[in-house]
Design goal:
alpha+beta; Glutaredoxin; 7-stranded mixed beta sheet; two-stranded antiparallel sheet
Length: 229
Amino acid sequence: MTRALATGLLLTTAVALLGCASEPLSEPSPQGAPVGAESPDPGAAATDDYVLTEYPPGPYGFSQGSVIANLEFKGWHDPVAAGYDPANFETVRLSDFYDPSGETTKLILINASAVWCSVCRAEYQHMRNEGIYATYKPKGVQLIGALFEDNNAGPATPQDLTEWGSLPAFSVEFPMVLDPGFKLGRYFTSDSTPLNLLIDARTMTIIDATMGYDPSPTSTYWQFVEAWL
């Protein structure tokens, strides 16, 4: 499938996507962090085992075709091994998944959800039931789940991430992070939730930002993803 056809598939299915209305918690800074928050150097070298020592240089942007900044969060690279326990939080950076050769990871898909969002819950349950991660991880697609708001539209907490990831209906196995400052807010293209942000792991270029999610059997979203592999 060509990339032109992939784009056509996305446009065809966009009208069918469902989403929950949402608003940012605060105005993010140009680096994608809330105003007043410390913004690390997006291309900084890593200090722990999970982070590669290189990252594409800026300038960084927020729209399709832009290189995404090396955002960092607290969470788990492997939530199952961590027992979904906040005591086992570690730093998770996008540079952890940067793969210039594409040998292991070709695409990164960041899902930004809120606890109160029924569509977000439906997406996670659908991914669990359909074995999405088990199917696409071997093909080179790395999922990352981010939680930004709690059930009352306040900043998501470590307990929220624990409960969200360990729900039997979700049983999340891919990396999970907290985004209480809504760093990912800059990448939303509408006020709908969830956000599915597709990134080329070989260049860290933003391919597409899809708002909402269509779990129906006729959805072609994962065909669109697969076309970029």
